[in-house]
Amino acid sequence: MSSVLYDAQGPRAKRRNILFNVLFLVALAAVLWWVFSALDEKGQLDWVKWEPFFTGTEAWTTYIWPGLQNTLLAAALSVVIALPLGAVLGIARLSDHAWVRVPVGVVVEFFRSIPVLVLMIFGLALFSEYSNVSSDDRPLYAVVTGLVLYNASVLAEIVRAGILALPKGQAEGAMAIGLRKGQVMRLILLPQAVTTMLPAIVSQLVVIVKDTALGGAVLTFSELLSAANTMSSYYGANTIASFTVVAAIFIAINFALTSFASWLERRLRRAKKSSGAVLKADDSQIAGAAGTGTGGSI
Amino acid sequence: MFDFLQDYDLLGAFWTTVQLTVLSAVGSLIWGTMLAAMRVGPVPLMRGFGTAYVNIVRNIPLTVIILFTSLGLNQTLNITMGAKDFETINFRLAVLGLILYTAAFVCEALRSGINTVPVGQAEAARAIGLSFSQVLRLVVLPQAFRSSVVPLANVLIALTKNTTVAAAIGVAEAALVMKEMIENEAQLLLIAGVIAFGFVVLTLPTGLILGWVGKKVAVKR
Amino acid sequence: MKLRKVTAVSATVFALALTATACGGDKNDDGGSSGGSKKITIGIKFDQPGLGQKTPNGYSGFDVDIATYVAKKLGYDENQIEWKESKSADRETMLQRGDVEFIAATYSITPQREEKVDFAGPYLLAHQDVLVRADDDSIKSPEDLNSKNLCSVTGSTSAQNVKNDLAPKANLQKYPTYSACLNGLQNGAIDALTTDDSILAGYASQSQFKGKFKLAGFKMTNENYGIGVKKGSDLKAKINEALEAMVADGSWQKAVDANFGPANYKNEPAPKVGDVKS
């Protein structure tokens, strides 16, 4: 791989490079060795702590799978509700009427500036005081409420940015052939914007999946992370092992999602003409424009 | 109506939130810049490490990372962050966890900033004989920083909100105090309103000011 | 150009499909709470070995055995019981809202709680105690906890009790779960874990911890475990009868032996119903 940031390497640079490689490898190995020896010394690598995950399926069927199901359920519900809501809010924010645009703008900015955790805690208290949702479902409802309110606002911004990023000529041309405002949005702008927004939307899914864990840590939602807690009390406080397994599952799910997002992006980029010389063109411009941070939202 | 607020150290809680935010912001800016440099640099192993780090860390829930700092780093590796009592240790561990997590996003924001620097800039810099670190330090990064002010501001806002996750290891910041208040007091909507107001006050100006700064310093092309 | 069209179409379809499912997306509440005539819902802990623990073979522990016996006396078979997790902070709310019929989850009878719910029992007298490493002889009295690393769970009052009354200089760490404390105790980052001795005994008797931990035996407080029911519920009298029968026919002792036996936990004799020790 060649980069424009440094020259093709001559013999001296190559030697220096090898030296850096070796030094870095040594440093990395030293840290890893230190971590492993400390873990080993504290008995964290004992087979008895890890055994439940490798022998038999008990740990998986009793704890992990039900937890994972709840994680995925909460994430899926949030996506399914937040996506259309976000689209509506995003479009409403582009409205010609100030009485639509301004209140929606306030709502979107408000929910974007409040932590999801605060929204979840509030949701839980709200459901237990003012609704008759059963205690089984209350944490799920609270988690989904928090995730929907926050992510719908973020998705609204993605949608808005996606539409704004389209060339002006598209809307003007559509109006020139006599389409009404709704038609312009529905037939011309949205179909094109959805294409460019797709990578950013998929990255937002990663955020949703990750944030379900808040429900397990602070509310009493029995998702993957809290399954790890129940599990570690049964298997003799193998907390580190349990959390490692849970983290690995999260990484696997989210890595699949991010890979899908960047695959989509590459595909879309290939379909379009590049708009200018950039150093390395493998980052989402739309995510930056949408104000959600680039290369995956936070 | 607001009487009960006096029973809780709400200002102290938000002060903790601010401290968590500022310390983590500085730390993650430094570590994130180093990661970005590794990712675009000539040393293959560092490039691999940078990529792996970003891909792993940004896919783990922050909650898990924060719990890991306490259970793994503190309990198992005996890292006490130079403190003795658990209150201080937990606070510092939370800062460390937030830095480790946020740096991955700072790195990505910077990388996207680097992408906006025209190829000619780097080529010209190399043509006058600058080394990689000089190209990066003197030519590319200064421009990259200027064009990534807005993405970085978004990371900062997200960081401010993410400090609430420190509640998972018992750091007494705003979200933990809110939970306590809800358990003991009846005025749910009022409590939620006060906390929400606090965060709006913290994050909205950040966005507005840095958005303005971003426009101001953007490299005109 | 063609590809772009295809992507756009598929994206629109995708978005539409999501919109369509959104209408039916709300999880319908198929009423898990009262569950008809032939089911009884009981709240227990899911993460306390020896008392109430979710295991691959169902639920086990002393609380579970008590609850099963009581349910049988009330006319429900084992397979008609629906177990529900009731975390400490949720217990009063769950009873008040009728989410569960009764709760047997290390539920100490206290005057504050009695204002909100009614208690049957007590069925066990436990004491606040500390768990230390088996080879640690430095903690002989609660005062020795000064300058030690003491652990408990968030929302628990036991740790605060120790800090307020007995060992003000104790370095207090709060984790979300007891497992995290135990892990720290095993690692040496924590010196003592404090809560009810019955709970501690349950952890200490796990096969993974054989011979690693011991109870200090301080008996710092009295914890009268009762069965929580809704305020004014007629279940209280029936459960009290069931508890008396359980002690009388020896099932109580059997449950104690089965769950606390391996822990070498010297439990108090069965308390008389209504005899709440302060």
Total separate domains of chain A: 2
Main CATH class of the largest domain in chain C: Alpha Beta
Structural class of chain A: mainly alpha
The number of domains of chain C: 2
Main sheet: strands, sense, barrel of chain C: 9 strands, mixed
Strand content of chain C: 15-25%
> What is the averaged pLDDT score of chain C?
80
Identify the overall geometry of chain A: flat
- Mean pLDDT score of chain A, rounded? 83
Derived structural class of chain C: alpha/beta
Separation, N- and C-terminal Cα atoms of chain A? 29 Å
What is the chain-wise order of helices and strands of chain C? HEEEEHEHEHEEHEHEHEEHH
Q: Largest interface by residue count?
A: A-B, 71 and 73 residues
N-to-C span of chain C: 81 Å
Q: Secondary-structure element sequence of chain A?
A: HHHHHHHHHHH
**Outline type of chain C:** globular
CATH superfamily of the largest domain in chain A: MetI-like
Which topology of the largest domain in chain C does CATH recognise? Answer: D-Maltodextrin-Binding Protein, domain 2
CATH top level class name of the largest domain in chain A: Mainly Alpha
Structure characteristics:
heterotrimer; A: 298 residues; mainly alpha; MetI-like fold; 2 domains; 76% helix; 0% strand; disordered C terminus; B: 221 residues; globular; transport (chain A)
